[in-house]
């Protein structure tokens, strides 16, 4: 995606700033880029240009230069400090077809009750062990069933089971933000065929909504699923679908797991139109 974005910058004629040296590169910085194999509705990229631009014009030109499926939702002129300093966690939505919500809720309860849950990840340097529990700030299990219009839209109702590290989160505090796609390392087999044969309306689907702190190394959605397997032997019969719905700084003053918009301060400070002639602004 990074190469596609850089090609779009060239097509759109964005006056990029370049690094020094024998092989100059445009100054583009992806902040907390999503792992391979997942979908995202909230990716942030910081670019440096040689003069200030109208953010909306930049957004429009870049969006037109990108292929279908990659959309620039907003561009903002950056203020002091880096964008990376304002992003501490991500909000993930993970759908697990074939998993009963009650079973998922119990697995999440066990995960949050544990002080530490070690999982293994295969890297280019071999297997690595990391504590998945330490990164999970809060979690919520949501069930969606068709045919009940008491809540939601389009004939969809939602029942929330709130689980968090302090048992103080209000119902539905996290779920209203979400949507994703993560590849799980569990294969389908006979259980997959059984789930696929179920009528769509009758197929259970547990949905996990979790706020995960950005750590080093990063804890990914598949690591959280591995942790659920460790604590509760939860193995989805088909691959899970994960989507990152938001990124931001954790708001310690509100509901546990609330994320603060990382661009809020820049958006408030930006004029409706931007003057030209200033070197090296950061446009996000």
UniProtKB/TrEMBL annotation:
This is Radical SAM-linked protein. It holds the Pfam family DUF2344. Residues 263-284 are annotated as: Disordered. It comes from the Bacteria. Residues 1-143 form the DUF2344 domain.
């Amino acid at each position: 995606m990074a190469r596609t974005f850089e090609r779009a910058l060239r097509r759109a004629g964005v006056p990029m700033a370049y690094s020094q040296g024998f092989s100059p590169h445009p100054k583009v910085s992806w902040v907390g880029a999503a792992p391979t194999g997942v979908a995202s509705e909230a990716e942030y990229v910081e670019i440096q240009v040689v003069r200030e631009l109208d953010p909306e014009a930049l957004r429009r030109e870049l969006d037109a230069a990108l292929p279908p499926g990659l959309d620039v939702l907003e561009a903002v002129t950056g203020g002091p400090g880096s964008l990376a300093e304002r992003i501490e966690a991500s909000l993930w939505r993970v759908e697990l077809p074939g998993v009963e919500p009650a079973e998922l809720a119990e697995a999440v309860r066990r995960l949050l009750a544990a002080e530490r849950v070690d999982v293994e990840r295969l890297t280019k340097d071999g297997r690595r062990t990391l504590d998945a529990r330490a990164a999970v700030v809060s979690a919520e299990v949501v069930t969606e069933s068709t045919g009940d219009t008491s809540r939601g839209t389009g004939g969809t109702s939602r029942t929330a089971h709130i689980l968090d590290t302090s048992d103080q989160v209000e119902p539905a505090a996290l779920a209203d933000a979400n949507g994703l796609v993560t590849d799980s390392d569990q294969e389908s087999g006979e259980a997959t065929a059984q789930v696929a044969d179920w009528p769509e309306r009758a197929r259970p689907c547990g949905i996990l909504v979790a706020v995960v702190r950005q750590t080093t190394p990063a804890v990914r959605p598949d690591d959280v699923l591995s942790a659920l397997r460790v604590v509760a032997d939860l193995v989805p019969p088909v691959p899970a679908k994960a989507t990152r719905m938001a990124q931001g700084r954790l708001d310690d003053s509100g509901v546990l797991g609330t994320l603060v918009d990382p661009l809020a301060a820049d958006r408030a400070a930006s004029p409706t139109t931007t003057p030209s002639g200033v070197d090296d602004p950061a446009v996000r």
